[in-house]
Amino acid sequence: MTQTTSFPLHDIATAPDTATAPRRAWRPGLLPWLAGPAWCCAAFVTWFWPDADDFPATDSLAIACAIIGIVLVPVALLPRFSAKAPWMIALALGLAAWEGVQAKLLLLPRPFFGTPQDLLDVFVTDWRKLGDSLLHSLGLLAVGYITGAVLGVVIGVGLGRSARFRYWVQPIIRLVGPLPPVALLPLAFVIIPSSWAASEALMTLASAFPVIVLTWSGISAVDPAYYDVARTMGARDRFLVLRVALPAAAPQIFVGLFMGLGMSFAMLVVAEMLGVKSGLGFYMQWAQGWAAYPNMYAALVVMSLMCTGLITILFRIRDRILGWQKDGLKW
């Protein structure tokens, strides 16, 4: 006679299921409350540790760090701040380390490596030139990128929908598209008399190629059943493109738009350094020529903020347009 072992059902019911149990969210604990003291420590280092040289705006930098530290103390009560607290602490510690290494000990060669005071002094004294350069860069970038994006979508739709159009245009795209736009810069300045128009043309080319390729790929990947259903309901070609093909290919089109924006950034800086006599790239070249390296670093900071802001705006537009596909988006 075989003896069987029975297990209590309540033990099985209460046992944790490691496969399906949700992971516990990371709780930062006291980490948000350390952001304010970290910035106060940076202010302490800046104020009480004597400078190794006569640097400008040391007092202003210390006051600014102290104000940020005081503001972050009540901000730690906000739930959303928990995710940003590690970065705020890292920025404060990085600033304090930079201040100690360069402003207090002068361990890095000058003038190639400035101090936080030098950078702050540039923003305080030269903000008009930086703002004017930013506006010129935004204007130059907007025209070239928007033109390239529109042309890229139109050409990509034509390649994906028309065999005759694809027969004539595809060899040109394969021949010209992979060329780095920077390599065409001397030729563009010779053919096009205006440096501004030449830069716009090259930025249009830089942004258009990835949009063309990704739009073409997205249009070609649309399920033919979608077209068949629309045709049975009397849809014409215009409806098929605007209401069937483009919405279905929109995720890939936005990938091309992001890639085109990145290529436009690179082309913008090169064009401003070599041809256009305005913008952040021209400002950086001017600063480097006069060995004003803090001004160059300030232009890099403004350029980084500009690029990050534009990418964030494009993400917001994508989320707005593709709200109906939000569950399927993985990036």
Automatic annotation (TrEMBL):
Main location, first listed in the record: membrane
Organism domain of life: Bacteria
PROSITE patterns for the chain: ABC_TM1 (PS50928)
TM ranges: 30-49, 61-78, 85-107, 138-160, 172-192, 204-227, 248-276, 296-317
Protein name (Swiss-Prot/TrEMBL): ABC transporter permease subunit
Cell location: Cell membrane
Family of this protein: Belongs to the binding-protein-dependent transport system permease family.
Keywords: Cell membrane, Membrane, Transmembrane, Transmembrane helix, Transport
Residue ranges of domain ABC transmembrane type-1 in the record: 134-315
Matches recorded under Pfam families: BPD_transp_1
Species this protein is from: Komagataeibacter melomenusus
InterPro entries linked: MetI-like (IPR000515), MetI-like_sf (IPR035906)
Topology of this chain in the membrane: Multi-pass membrane protein
CDD domains: TM_PBP2
